[in-house]
Design brief:
Elements (H helix, E strand, L loop, with lengths): L25 H10 L5 E3 L5 E3 L3 H21 L13 E6 L2 H18 L20 E8 L4 E10 L20 E9 L8 H15 L4 E6 L1 H9 L6 E2 L4 E3 L2 E9 L2 H10 L1 H8 L4 H6 L20
Parallel strand pairs: 6-7
Antiparallel strand pairs: 1-2, 3-4, 4-5, 5-6, 7-10, 8-10, 9-10
Helix pairs in contact: 6-7
Length: 305
């Protein structure tokens, strides 16, 4: 195989022998790179791109795309089914009374220690006080009554939620929305699955309240974890900026069947686990069975077929 040599003056001479000319110019390399994974594209002898839209070519392209998607899905590392709560832990819902005051104090102490809130004689996060009458807590407590973790759900239109302090740039999900706030876990229980159970409780609450989307203010690295590891289709609602001690980003995840189907497809064990927080009637009412071919009611004792 011969590659033509250049004349002394820098111009390539014509080939009179039977050598093969290899075009290694940037343009030629770019053309070949562009078609490397495209079934419908090829490069002609003169270097021009050819687009094949025949039925056979389209069918081959669809098959190749499905194979690429399957390969990517197989290589993706996902969270799977979270760990169960410890035997001495229980999840409770709180709407008022002494437990509410304890939940407020639990969040306050953690926020102050992290620099997210100022000191208050009321032992509560004053920035969240205005939503007292429009929210509820879910908490995990141990068998002595000590708080291990908490999450607060707040339902309303975007502008009336804590996230409403951020300028909204994404209007895909209509009101009402449910904000997950005060998501706090004791430091010695990090990575134990407590956070997963709290998030599931908040998500189930949002569905029951009729929320069209779940919103939150979170660190950017948590945003990446939710999307990549848990396969939750969160998207940004606005631009990140400094808020209550750190840079956070406002995010939203739709509660639609389409969004839930993405989780079921990419992280099926996690999806099945989330469905366990709902009754069989709720799963049917929200249209969440048989998404991505997963029959979550198949083994439910509370399901009447």
């Amino acid at each position: 195989m011969a590659i033509p040599k250049a004349h002394d003056e820098g111009h390539r001479r014509d080939d009179d022998d039977d050598g093969v000319v290899i075009d290694i110019t940037d343009a030629a390399t770019a053309r070949r790179a562009a078609v490397a994974d495209e079934v419908l594209l090829s490069v002609a002898a003169d270097g021009e791109l050819i687009l094949d839209l025949t039925d056979d070519a389209l069918a081959a392209a669809e098959k190749a795309e499905a194979a690429r998607a399957a390969k990517a899905a197989a290589a993706r590392v996902v969270s799977g089914r979270p760990s169960p709560l410890r035997d001495d832990h229980q999840l409770i819902a709180i709407t008022g009374g002494d437990l509410w005051m304890q939940a407020e104090a639990f969040v306050y102490e953690r926020y102050v220690s992290l620099g997210y809130a100022d000191h208050s004689s009321r032992r509560r996060v004053e920035e969240l006080a205005r939503w007292h009458d429009h929210s509820r807590f879910h908490a995990i407590v141990d068998d002595t009554g000590e708080f291990v973790g908490s999450v607060r759900t707040i339902l309303g239109p975007y502008q009336d939620l804590p996230v409403g302090q951020f300028e909204r740039t994404n209007f895909d999900d209509p009101n009402p929305l449910c904000e997950l706030s005060s998501l706090v876990v004791r430091q010695d229980y990090g990575g134990s699955g407590v956070l997963d159970h709290l998030f599931r409780a908040g998500w189930a609450d949002a569905l029951r309240l009729g929320a069209r989307g779940i919103v939150a203010l979170i660190d950017t690295w948590i945003f990446d974890v939710l999307c990549d590891l848990y396969c939750m289709p969160f998207s940004q609602l606005g631009e990140p900026h400094f808020h209550m001690g750190g840079d956070v980003v406002p995010v939203v995840m739709s509660t639609s069947q389409s969004a839930m189907s993405q989780i079921a497809h990419h992280n099926p064990d996690f999806y099945r686990w989330n469905m366990e927080a709902l009754t069989a009637d709720e799963i049917r009412r929200f249209g969440l069975n048989n998404l991505a071919g997963i029959d979550v009611l198949a083994d439910r004792t509370d399901a009447t077929r």
